[in-house]
Amino acid sequence: MSEQNLPKFSQFAVAQELLAKGERVEMRVLGQSMLPFFISGQKIKLRPITEQDFKRYNVVFAKDTRKGFVVHRIIAFKGDDVILLGDGNIYQTETIARNCVYGIVDCSPLHIFFAKMWVAMRRFRRFPLAIFRRITPK
User: Fold this and answer.
1) At 27, is the secondary structure helix, strand, or coil?
2) pLDDT of 29-53, one tens digit each?
3) Cα(37)–Cα(22) distance, rounded to whole angstroms?
4) Residue 1 and residue 43: Cα distance in Å, rounded?
């Protein structure tokens, strides 16, 4: 895996192509939408998604037709669509067709355990998020 300095959209488009070919991808998180689990600038490793990976609380790489590419957490399913929510978001979700989900971030069981608690406290997480946003680099 080589690191390249590409514009945000280009980086994600290259990642999509590599994942479609069955390759693993390492990239940097951009933005604060996955706080507190992933910090902007942190490296994450993606691998191609399989049908068994479509589970609540998994973090996936997908393309939203309105927003572009996202790395967000699965919180629900609606028919053939996947509902995603960034850990750093409170209300705004994305509804994505399964075939627009290209990769998954392998997370430890401990990460998933804490993610379940974080998702459960969705209405109340604005307070810890305010603190995380002030203390983490952008």
Assistant:
1) strand
2) 888 899 999 998 899 999 999 999 9
3) 26
4) 12
